Amino acid sequence: MNTKKLTYMSLLTAMALIIFVIELQIPPLFPIPGAKLGLANIVTVFAVYTLRPAESAMILTARILLGTLIAGSPISLIMSLSGGFLCLAGMLLLCRVIDKQHIWVCSVLGAVLHNLGQTAAAMLVMGTASVLVYLPFLMLTGCAAGLFTGLCAQYSVRALGGRFK
Amino acid sequence: MIRSQKFWVAVALLVIIGSAVWSYLTLRFWDSGSTVNIISDGKVLYTIDLSKEPDREITVEYEGRKNIITIKSGRIRVTYADCPDHYCISQGWGEEGSLLPIICLPNRLVIEPADSQLDGVAR
Questions:
Q1: Could you name the CATH architecture of A3-24+36-160?
Q2: Helix, strand, coil shares, percent, chain B, to 5
Q3: What is the pLDDT confidence band of residue B117, given thresholds at 50, 70 and 90?
Q4: Cβ pair B89, B67 in contact under 8 A
Q5: pLDDT reading at B120 higher than 50
Q6: Phi, psi (5° rounding) for residue A77?
Q7: Residue from A130, A140, A147 whose CB has the most chain B CBs within 10 Å, to mutate
Q8: B73 vs chain A: nearest CA distance in angstroms?
Q9: Is A129–B15 a contact, with Cβ atoms under 8 angstroms apart?
Q10: ipTM field
Q11: What CA–CA distance (Å, rounded) separates B67 from B61?
Q12: Residue A84 above 70 pLDDT?
């Protein structure tokens, strides 16, 4: 990894954090715990399609840890990590079979994986299966959010991508 | 098949439609009964029959953080929480028969139907 690459990745991490902070200002649209737009995932999806897997993982880890320092709690950290990494792992596999014209598909499926990871972690933390009731609603809002972030990433990749693969 | 883009588009659409149908079925056929459990940090603190319970307020504390639960004419909701997001408050009233679990993640509080269809999964 050369300095240019490191700088590029830091820039992406900083962008993800800024998006994360701005999104905090948007009031929650649905009274479902865990449902949010997840705009910072635009950067994750972008990284999955333009950087190596380990590099995407580094950007995601840095974003989640720093994001938790800005606004978060130990519990929100567990939720972000479990959802974020299941989503990342799924998208890293899917990006091998889904081409750059269909990034939104990868993002929607990633969003659903994110919800599954979150819900599993919530079940463990809360010690009750009640949270499962919210899974279908989370998945539905997650698909919509994933579609939006995926399209954002798709157009970004078309405009800027491929430079560092 | 796995290389075909159409296949993955179809999978994504199926997931979207599936979760919409699942959401609808949950709302349509959810039946919670009248007894609720108030659970803090995995332990059942109160078991309340909403159809018999007089109006009252219950304060639940977890690691110094408070939630106030209000019961009024057979309905239940969280009216105060000192967590950052207040999802539990915006979930509003839950009443007999149609109470979806009310959850406050930061304070590890759950208000759930005592005999929900999820019982088999939970225990």
A1: Orthogonal Bundle (1.10)
A2: 25, 35, 35
A3: low
A4: no
A5: no
A6: -65, -45
A7: A130
A8: 23
A9: no
A10: 0.85
A11: 6
A12: yes
